[in-house]
Amino acid sequence: MKPVEIVTSEERAVWLERQTELRKHNLVKCNYYPNKLDEWAEKSKEIMREYNFQLHEMNKNRKETNKNQNEIKITRINKRKRTSIEENNKEPLRRSGRIAADSVKQKENIAVEALLSLRIARL
After folding, report:
1. Average pLDDT in the 37-53 region?
2. 22 with 44, same domain?
3. Mean pLDDT, to the nearest integer, of 102-107?
4. How many CB atoms lie within 10 A of CB 58?
5. Closest Cα to residue 92, out of 104, 80, 105?
6. Buried/exposed code over 68-90 (b: 16+ C-beta within 10 A; e: otherwise)
7. Are 58 and 3 part of one and the same domain?
8. Do 70 and 99 sit in the same domain of this protein?
9. Same domain, 81 and 99
10. CB–CB of 11/59 below 8 Å?
11. Per residue in 62-72, pLDDT tens?
12. More reliable by pLDDT, 65 or 33
């Protein structure tokens, strides 16, 4: 079986329970000595296997929830990036000074023509 990770408090509690169970089993080793040591070793392996399986399942569940939470965070970040990109795209593109000056002159010409047309209309 794969090695287990002990990260959360629940995993730590199961690990400590495993350790106490093994300690109790080690205390009764004298009852198995000398003819039943194979049974004693098999029982200790079974204890480890049982608790490692529980820890493995807990690790798997924790990783799945972390993965789902990370996906949610990534989608939120991507959404923010998309909105900021869209906001930036609303602004006019930066142009060279010559083109900017020409556009300012065109705007001034339009403004001057509008004022002249208003002045002519009043006369």
Report:
1. 92
2. yes
3. 74
4. 19
5. 104
6. eeeeeeeeeeeeeeeeeeeeeee
7. yes
8. no
9. no
10. yes
11. 999 999 898 89
12. 65
Structural domain of 113? 94-123
The string of DSSP letters for the chain reads: -PPP---SHHHHHHHHHHHHHHHHHHHTHHHHTTT-HHHHHHHHHHHHHHHHHHHHHHHHHHHHHHHHHHHHHHHHHHHHHHHHHHHHHHSPPP--HHHHHHHHHHHHHHHHHHHHHHHHHH-
What pLDDT does residue 81 have?
A: 81
Same domain, 55 and 73: yes
Claim to verify: residue 33 and residue 77 sit in the same structural domain: yes
Token reading at 61: 């569940």
**Residue 5: what residue type?**
E
Same domain, residue pair 62 and 101? no
Radius of gyration in angstroms for the set of CA atoms belonging to the chain, rounded to a whole number:
38
Instruction: Say what percent of the chain tops pLDDT 70.
Output: 85
- How many domains would you assign to the chain? 2
Nearest in space to 54 (alpha carbons), one of 17, 102, 93: 17
The closest of 94, 117, 112, 6 to 56, measured between CA atoms, is 6
